[in-house]
Each structure stands twice: as structure tokens, then as C-alpha cells.
Design brief:
Helices cover 62% and strands 1% of the residues. The protein is mainly alpha-helical. The chain has a two-stranded antiparallel sheet with strand order 1-2.
Amino acid sequence: MSAALALRVSPEAPQNPASGEKAALTPEAIGALATACLRLEVDTWPKPGLVSHVDNGSHADMDAALLHRSAGVLEPFFAAIAKAAGAGADMDRLRGVGMAAEAEMLAATGGVNTHRGAIFGLGLLCAAAALRNAREPTLGATVSRRWGRAIHEGPAALHSHGSRAGRRYGASGARGEAATGFPSVYMLGAPALDEGLRLAPHDLEAARVQAIFALIAGVADTNILHRGGAEGLAFAQRRAAEFLDRGGVGAPGWRESAARVHDEFVLRQLSPGGSADLLSMSLFVRAVERPARSVRSEFDHAREAQ
């Protein structure tokens, strides 16, 4: 027989009885939340060109099961990054944990890059979550203030698809996003989650669809640039913007409209992998920074009985 596992992304921190303030999340809770956000990204559909529980999008080398396995492997590393940051680790130490996470990911996926961008960006947000305090209003502000310079000056992945596309087309990519405090998360992804909840208050998946379309429309996604060049990026941004302009997830028949855009991306072999990472990050910051209004979702994992 099979069983269903319902996951709620709602990390209510324990109360500090002396101050009445919420105590910090433990590293283990931070790691679990980060992994939950990665899994929620996978289990969102329709999202143009990307792998989901429905199909493999524009990818011949990965599917939803592989992405779920990768996310599970990364959970202890996200916790380790949070623990290291809480102990005062510098960027070199955090980078070392990230490199170990990437090696474990590649071992688990047979060499397929499922979550390299998420290890970097979501990992930094996990580190910031371990250091959260009232003086820094957002996790992005913590990342930028504490590690922004080190991110700019640190080694780049010269031979990755994203870095090559970024150099060719002048896109700042993941490093620029992180060093400046994740503006795409705070200006596009997270507000679109709120808008999606307003437009479809009883459909939590719809909020994530609204967010991925907003990110695709507004981000110079280096994964799209790698696959489709400037023309591919212009097409992707235009089609995503048209979906939003017609009312997004508040429009009648929005799922069918979004699915048509997905099919168009697959036909052109476009995949907004950077936007997918930013969706996971947007879910994470909303859950950590607004626990009383956190974006919650439930999804089922079919498990065969032994």
C-alpha cells in the first residue's frame, strides 16, 4: 500500500518566555525548511520548461524523483551551513560546506547538476537565518552586509553554463543576486507569492505558479541565456509577462494558459533554472520572515510499502 506525507512549510519558532520574542530556528529546522522549499518547487505545475511531478519539462537528464532525492541529500548540508554561520564562520568556511554539498549532490544524481544554484543561494539564506536579528530586516540584508564583498571577490565557477552565459550577455547571475541581497526574491518572487495568495486564496500551488512567472518575466535568467541566447530570454520574458498581464492565476482558465506557455518553452528547449532556484528562496524567506503568514503547502509522496 502507499502512504501520503503532508508537509507544511510553516516554521513557527518557539517563544522566548523572558522577552516574548521568537527564538531562533535551530540549524536542523533551517535545513529541513530549505529542503521543503526545494521540494515545493518541484511539485509546482505548470511552470514553463521546468521539471515537475507532471513531466520533465525541457530536461532529458532529470525528473521529479531525481530532484526529490537531491533535495533530501542536501538537508544536512543546509543545517551544517546554518550551524557554521551561527558559530561565526567566514565565507571560506561556508563555501567549503557548499562544495561538500555539491559533491554529495553529484554523487547522488550520477553527475547531474540538479541544485548547484540552490546550494549557493539557498545555502546563504540558511546561514543568514541562523544569524537573524531585529537590526537586519531581511535575510537578504544579512547576506549582503556580512558576505557581499566576499561573494563579489570570491572564486567564480568559470566553466558552468550560467557563468559562461553571464559573461557573454552581461547578466549578473547568482553571484550578483546574492551579493546585493537577493533583489529578485524581495522585489519579484516574494511579492508574487503574496499576490498569488490574494488572487487564489484557496490554491497554494497557484501562489507558486504566480511567483515563477513573475521571476521568469523579470530576471535575466542565465539558464535561459545558455540555452536560447538573448532571443530566447526575450521570448521567455515576453510570454511570462503576457500571462501575468492577463490576470495571472486570477484569470479564468489560468492553468491551461500556463500549460501552453510550458509547452512553448519545451518546444524551444528553454529552462528557467535560475528562476526555479529563486522560487525556492522566495518560499524560504517568506516562511522565515513572516511565520504568522508563512506560505504553506501540502504535497503527497507516494511510498511503496516494504
